[in-house]
Specification:
mainly alpha, elongated
């Protein structure tokens, strides 16, 4: 019987971890006080919506009223014969005039509110 050759055991290389040096924190540049009027004056006068500002409440009311007005006028335009569900058809046929008036009034209210808030 022939002797079997010995197998060489291959050892895995051990990976050494190199300690990472922490990077220094970047310095935050300070804003310079400029004596020029340039762009800074124009930026102060722009209307920016802030939480709790009356302009943001006014624009929210304008969008909400427009959405309700469009919904009312859309329902008022639909003929009752085109609605497949009978209770909804009865609602549309009975309330077309009222929905038209409500939609038109909301459109006028949003127009007034838009000019009252000066488009902010």
């Amino acid at each position: 019987m022939a002797a079997k050759p010995k197998r060489k055991v291959q050892r895995k290389k051990v990976q050494r971890t190199v300690p990472v040096k922490p990077k220094p924190a970047a310095a935050v540049p300070k804003a310079k006080d400029s004596k020029t009027l340039g762009v800074s004056v124009g930026l102060r006068n722009t209307a920016q919506a802030k939480p709790g500002d009356s302009g943001s409440i006014g624009s929210l009311l304008i969008v909400l009223a427009l959405a309700i007005a469009i919904g009312c006028l859309t329902i008022a335009v639909i003929p009752a014969t085109a609605v497949p569900w009978r209770p909804a058809a009865i609602f549309v046929s009975d309330r077309q005039v009222e929905l038209t008036v409500i939609g038109f009034a909301l459109l006028m209210a949003t127009t007034f509110m838009f000019f009252w808030t000066r488009g902010a």
